[in-house]
Amino acid sequence: MAGCLSDSSNGGDEDGDSLASGGPLQRIAVEGTELIVEISADTTLDQVLVIQPNGEQFGVREVLAEVQQVSFDLGIAYDPGEYHVVGLDDGEESIEHSLTIEPNLEIREVGLYRNHPDKPWDEVYGESDTNLRKMGEAFVTVENTGTGPNTVTKLVFSGDVPNPVENPQSDGLYETNQVVVPPGETVDLFSYSFPFGSASEEGMRCAPDGNQGRFTVSIGTSVRTKPISNNFDVKYTGATEMHECEITITEASDG
To answer: Which stretches in the chain have pLDDT values below 70?
Structure first.
């Protein structure tokens, strides 16, 4: 499972699929926005307690005889860092494992319909509006290489795009205000600021002989770790109108 975590000193395997195999706590994993704890069938534990990075209790669950799993909802704005999962037997600590839950989002790619027609443009924007939208909007691929989920809440294009907007409608995400990116997963974000639509006064224009520049994609997230952005080189050529322009986007070699 993506996001599985383990402490190898306590029986976790190399892939992090299990934790303390053969002990009371069989497996600890982050799935979506939940922390999952699997418990052995013959356990004497009666509670599972989770302590968050600041040392305060995050949550506690009763261990029922007929249930071998308990879950804790991390939500979309948890504190990243080291969490402690504690098994209690009659109120006394029986076993404890620590794990780091921390996302790491990276912007991998920016693409347009003219370069990536296989993306679900009609599904996202609706067929009646797609012809206009798909020529001016963009998708941004983000990957979460961390051990915890994060939620994208804002998407901004700045620099040499035809239509840079500092504070876009709906924070730049098309028809949603948040997109969850679980650990180990890659997600496409679709823009709602028309970054490659008709050029504004501040924007880069297309030219038959070519214009080139650089733009930055930045995303805001609910779990604050560090600013997340990436630079891309871009070339506009072959026309004066943006809907006829050939646009080539490559990741900036110097970041």
So the answer is: 1-22, 128-130, 255
> What is the SS3 assignment for 120?
coil
C-alpha span between 77 and 63 (Å, rounded): 26
Cβ contact 83:52 at 8 Å: yes
Domains and CATH numbers, the chain: 4-101 (2.60.40.10), 105-251 (2.60.40)
SS (H, E, C) 14-43: CCCCCCCCCCCEEEEEEECCEEEEEECCCC
As given in the structure block, the two tokens for residue 70 are 């308990």
**In angstroms, how far is CA 57 from the centroid of its own chain?**
26
Q: How far apart are the first and last CA of the chain?
A: 31
pLDDT in tens, 54-67: 999 999 999 988 88
Tokens of 228: 């997340």
Strands 92-101, 81-89: pairing is antiparallel
Secondary structure class of 125 (helix, strand, coil)? helix
Q: Would you state the pLDDT for residue 128?
A: 64
Classify 206 as helix, strand or coil.
coil
